[in-house]
Write a structure and sequence with these properties.
Elements: H1 9-38, H2 43-53, H3 55-80, H4 83-119, H5 123-155, H6 160-182, H7 192-217, H8 232-263, H9 268-304, H10 308-335, H11 337-341, H12 348-361, H13 365-381, H14 385-406, H15 413-455
Helix pairs in contact: 1-2, 1-6, 1-7, 1-9, 2-5, 2-9, 3-4, 3-5, 3-8, 3-9, 4-5, 4-8, 5-7, 6-7, 8-14, 9-10, 9-12, 9-13, 10-13, 10-15, 12-15, 13-15, 14-15
């Protein structure tokens, strides 16, 4: 366990960011590897895998429920030096992870084709996306337990083991993808099914490695089967923090589904180009997101320790770092997008759309970095309802105008990207205002408590116990 209530905040952020970033980038690379090797199968396969990958946002919503609730509550318990509560929260989250994993498998098997029919441009894309999803669902189901273990470690200030496991899983996926997708060395190509299977095998191996590390090394929280039976009061604590954050990812799913819907009339090449550009955008945003995620446990432990000044300082320092990072990548996307997108498709129309998307949408990267930072701070504060409110605002201010514009004469695909910039900027402004309001409500109380503690006189011995 690492105490984040003392020492340099910037040093804590910079120490935790690289492992977090490496773990997240490894996940994104897995998805990019799938797209890269599937690209040889044609635009329909690329569009199908990219659109199917959007379903991951919906599953990630459930993962966020577990991850955010676990990180926030365990971090608060660590700040209070309350180890029994930290263990209880961890084991209740483990029980929820098993339930959510089972629900993912069942829902994925039943609804994959229906989902693809709702957003795909043609029948070939529907088939490719459905097959990929069915083979990819085991990976998503296994991610739940990994999410809980990694979240418990992050709440206690430990991030390196989860990163190492993610990197190893990516290496396994990269090794398996060409073998299973294209039949390298075997002569038996599984196509898009191989992409999903490679990811599922890699995640399964990674999960076993993380579990082995956790059971051998972690001492602050531990598995306790006696605490796996659902306890409504503590499940409610996890869900009260986690559900609004999960709702944020559900809003992202709706947002992406609307994009696929409004550009479907432009054909499979447009959906493929958007899918490639969106995956690369997610990759270059990872460093800023990692900084924001590092700030969450720092804020959480200091909330538990009733140190309001360090909570505010954590926000300021992390916001400045994310802004600098996002400005750097925005300049790169504006000047040399071909460096980021080279090699993903030989189709000129697909790549032209990917270049256009990245150049336009990268203009909102600073706003997106502030959204990441505010979201992580709300998680550290233990109140994620404002995060959901800002996400809902973005979805409505984007979706309704986008659907309306798509029915108007002269509608062009770049209108979709410009509208996204406006909606994201509005969300960033709203997030900052909501966080300022939350600081005033939560941290004023902390300052009052600190002032009372400082003003309290030293205890005076009673006459009966005074020395003779």
């Amino acid at each position: 366990m690492k105490d984040l209530t003392n020492g340099s905040i910037v040093r804590h952020i910079l120490a935790m960011t690289p492992p977090i970033m490496a773990g997240m980038i490894s996940i994104m690379i897995c998805q990019l590897v799938d797209l890269y090797f599937v690209s040889g199968l044609g635009d329909a396969a690329v569009a199908g895998v990219a659109a199917a990958g959007n379903a991951g946002f919906l599953v990630n919503a459930l993962m966020q429920v577990l991850g955010v609730g676990t990180v926030a509550l365990i971090a608060h318990a660590v700040g209070r030096k309350d180890r029994p509560d930290a263990n209880l929260i961890f084991n209740q989250a483990v029980a929820l992870s098993a339930l959510f994993g089972l629900l993912t498998l069942v829902a994925g098997s039943a609804l994959s084709r229906l989902y693809m029919r709702s957003i795909a441009a043609d029948q070939a894309t529907i088939e490719a996306g459905t097959i990929y999803l069915l083979w990819f669902m085991p990976a998503l189901a296994l991610e739940f337990v990994m999410q809980v273990i990694a979240s418990a470690l992050r709440a206690t200030g430990i991030v390196r083991p989860a990163m190492l496991v993610r990197v190893l899983a990516v290496i396994i996926n990269i090794a398996l993808a060409p073998v299973l997708i294209s039949g390298w060395g075997t002569g038996y190509a599984l196509g898009v099914a191989g992409a999903g299977l490679a990811s599922s095998i890699a995640v399964a191996i990674g999960g076993l490695m993380l579990l082995a590390y956790f059971r051998k090394v972690e001492r602050y929280v531990a598995f306790n089967p006696a605490q796996w039976w659902p306890q409504p009061r503590h499940l409610k604590r996890i869900l009260n923090v986690g559900l609004p954050a999960g709702g944020e990812f559900a809003m992202m799913f709706i947002f992406m589904a609307v994009v696929y819907y409004v550009i479907s009339d432009f054909g499979a090449a447009a959906q493929a180009g958007f899918g490639i550009g969106q995956r690369m955008l997610g990759l270059i945003q990872m460093p800023a997101l990692a900084v924001a995620l590092a700030a969450g446990p720092i804020a959480g432990q200091n909330v538990g320790a009733a140190n309001g000044a360090r909570v505010r300082e954590t926000f300021v320092k992390s916001a400045l770092i994310t802004t600098v990072v996002m400005v750097g990548f925005m300049i790169l996307a504006q000047v040399k997008p071909e460096l980021l997108l080279a090699g993903f498709s030989n189709d000129q129309e697909t790549m032209a759309i990917a270049y256009l998307f990245l150049r336009i949408i990268s203009l909102n990267m600073v706003a997106q970095g502030l959204i990441f930072t505010c979201s992580s701070m709300f998680q550290g504060l233990g109140n994620t309802k404002p995060v959901l409110l800002s996400s809902v605002t973005r979805v409505f201010t984007y979706s309704l105008p986008a659907i309306w514009l798509s029915t108007r004469p002269g509608f062009r695909i770049e209108h979709v990207w410009y509208l996204s910039i406006a909606a994201t900027t509005l969300q960033a402004a709203l997030s900052l205002w909501l966080l300022r309001r939350e600081f005033r409500k939560r941290l004023v109380v902390v300052r009052h408590e600190e002032a009372s503690d400082q003003a309290a006189p030293e205890p005076v011995a009673s006459p009966a116990r005074a020395p003779a």
